[in-house]
Specification:
- The structure is a single chain.
- With 267 residues, the chain is α+β, with helices and mostly antiparallel strands.
- It has two domains: 69 residues, no CATH class; 173 residues, Alpha carbonic anhydrase (Carbonic Anhydrase II, Roll), CATH 3.10.200.10.
- The protein contains seven helices and 14 strands.
- Strands 2, 3, 4, 5, 6, 7, 9, 10, 11, 12, 13 and 14 form a twelve-stranded mixed β-sheet that branches.
- It binds 2-acetamido-2-deoxy-beta-D-glucopyranose (NAG) and zinc ion.
């Protein structure tokens, strides 16, 4: 009885401290560290509940249980203009208004998607057999009929020379502060498109890796990395800061944050 009581007390006190909800309807500010960092995203607003309870959360460590899928290609123009914005969490890139938005179609695992934009995570969010990379770029798409999200992840390694052409026109040095916006012309998409066509591609059903951590996101991740130069990586790293969510449980597994709340095990 005594030990049951102390279990109850422990649970009650952790519930009280968990009630940091913002109730004013504004988007709760979140970050990658401290009191509004990834282990507490679910406490910032009830909208973020899945961050702490979802059982198909991203990113994951891609091991041998994760399937691969054929039939992926990006069917983009060879070069295109993008609007790049430092939004305080990443550098977010969208096709420029002078581009025909319908020109950015992709086939992901045999299904037709439309590109919404792409952004950067340093270090990588996904891992493959326990190993991460310095950078992961997420190409965010929506399914042309269902509207479901499909995200294609490409890893980058750092190399001493000039890196892949994709980064050559990226003005990361002028995107160092939140709110900085740049128009970047003639971004080459050739290497990216060739890589998607020729890579082994893992797929699984996961989530957004940022609040509100919504699920039913179709994930596609290329196994092999492309290359970014030391210089461009340095500029990008300073623009985005550390912006990688911690590795989540495997698809279908109980959320790791719920596992950590097992009061019985801590008494
Ligand atoms: C992988 O993609 C294939 C083809 O789109 C799909 O049928 C399958 O359900 C996907 N697997 C997972 C685990 O999402
Ligand atoms: Zn992302």
């Amino acid at each position: 009885m005594r030990s049951q009581l102390s279990v109850l007390l422990l649970c009650a006190s952790s519930l009280v401290s968990a009630c940091l909800y913002k109730r004013d309807g504004e988007q709760a500010p979140w970050s990658y560290e401290g009191h509004n960092g990834p282990v507490l995203w679910h406490n910032l607003t009830p909208d973020n509940g899945l961050c702490g309870t979802g059982t198909n959360q991203s990113p994951i460590n891609i091991d041998s249980t994760i399937t691969t899928v054929d039939g992926s290609s990006f069917n983009y123009p060879a070069e295109a203009d993008f609007i790049l914005e430092n939004n305080g969490h990443t550098v977010d890139c969208k096709p420029s208004e002078d581009e025909d938005a319908t020109a950015f179609r992709s086939t992901l695992g045999g299904a037709e998607y439309q590109l919404l934009g792409f952004h950067f995570h340093a270090p990588s969010e996904h891992r493959v057999n326990g190993l991460g990379y310095p950078l992961e770029v997420h190409f965010v798409h929506k399914h042309v009929r269902t509207g479901d999200l499909g995200v294609f992840g490409i890893f980058f390694d750092i190399e001493a020379s000039e890196g892949d052409d994709f980064f050559h026109q990226m003005p990361f040095r002028q995107l160092q502060a939140k709110g900085d916006v740049m128009h970047a012309e003639d971004i080459s998409l050739r290497t990216i498109m060739a890589h998607v066509r020729t890579s082994r591609v893992f797929n699984y059903s996961g989530s957004l890796t940022t609040p509100p951590c919504s699920e039913k996101v179709n994930w596609f991740v290329a196994e092999q990395p492309l290359l970014i130069s030391v210089d461009q990586y340095d500029a990008l790293k300073h623009a985005v800061g550390f912006n990688s969510r911690f590795t989540q449980g495997m698809p279908g597994e109980k959320n790791l944050l719920q596992q950590s709340e097992h009061c019985e095990e801590t008494v």
